[in-house]
Amino acid sequence: MRFRLTPRETSFYDMFAASADNIVTGSKLLMELLGADSSARAEIAERMRAAEHAGDDATHAIFHQLNSSFITPFDREDIYNLASSLDDIMDFMEEAVDLVVLYNVEELPKGVEQQIEVLSRAAELTAEAMPHLRTMDNLTEYWIEVNRLENQADQIHRKLLAQLFNGKYDAIEVLKLKQIVDVLEEAADAFEHVANTVETIAVKES
Fold first, then answer.
1. CA pair distance 5, 174, nearest whole angstrom
2. Entry's SUPFAM superfamilies (predicted)?
3. How far apart are CA 29 and CA 18, in angstroms?
4. Which range of residues forms the domain containing residue 111?
5. SS3 (DSSP) at 119
6. Which of 5, 111, 181, 191 is most buried by a 10 A CB count?
7. pLDDT at 143 over 90
């Protein structure tokens, strides 16, 4: 690690960790949605909305700290990108839950549970990785695994699209379900963006 003569603002580490922990909360709500009937989904969506607002607050706190700090632990652009990508994950997960409720989807297509399982694992890995930003140690396996998970998510997404267009669903239902599985795929992409940003930071700091 590069030796620094100047002090650094360290509260960013705690804020990134809090943001990632909140994403784990969101992923658990997605898992809960899978086993819920339509009457319980609205309440889950409310809790997801609250988690998304908490994520927004965490992101705004990072941006405020960034704007008010003279010295930062790593490049300002990387701090901004990392905070934004973490926020994107929560936004996509909240959107997916909201769409399920708004569209009154009775049954999600087989394979969505695999999408959500991938997101849940990526959330756990991301939350475990954020504290390591302090030392930049033990991060390589994190971004390799998240990239592998994103590739897995791509394959699941393609299979889901093939299933949606196999003639089983009517046109309106296809539009609804496709939007949901597309948003879940965007969440997987956002996890990869976080991992790629962490890799960029680690390379610069090495």
1. 58
2. PhoU-like (SSF109755)
3. 17
4. 12-205
5. helix
6. 191
7. yes
Amino acid letter for position 33: L
Alpha carbon distance 164, 160 (integer Å): 6
Closest CA to 20 of 141, 116, 131, 117: 131
Give per-residue pLDDT as tens, 151-189.
Answer: 999 999 999 999 999 988 999 999 999 999 999 999 999
Q: Is 95:183 a contact under the CB 8 Å cutoff? A: yes
User: Is 158 among the domain residues?
Assistant: yes
Mean pLDDT taken over the chain? 93
Q: What is the CATH number of the domain that holds 141?
A: 1.20.58.220
Rounded average pLDDT over 103-131: 95
Indicate whether this model's pTM tops 0.90: yes
Q: Which two tokens stand for residue 80?
A: 């901004």
